[in-house]
Design a protein that fits this description.
mainly alpha, about 0% strand
Length: about 70
């Protein structure tokens, strides 16, 4: 009986740790994509001669970020 209680509590604790790890990894992924990947893609498009596509994408993303509410997280 004690082994069963121990296993239940063990899964509860490590389940919460797993959920926290997934949330943290998702946050880091969003930051890396926003701060590193997106600007590199836009710069690569401009250098590659695709400024007619890069400029509207930049404008659309800029307008969206201006009007998006701040997240509560």
């Amino acid at each position: 009986m004690l082994a069963f209680i121990f296993m239940v509590l063990l899964f509860m604790v490590f389940g919460k740790i797993l959920v926290f790890a997934v949330k943290a990894a998702w946050g880091v992924t969003k930051i890396v994509c926003t701060v590193v990947l997106f600007p590199l893609i836009l710069i690569g498009m401009v250098v590659g001669g695709l400024i007619k596509i890069a400029l509207p994408v930049l404008l659309i993303v800029g307008v969206i970020t201006l009007f998006m509410p701040k997240s509560a997280n």
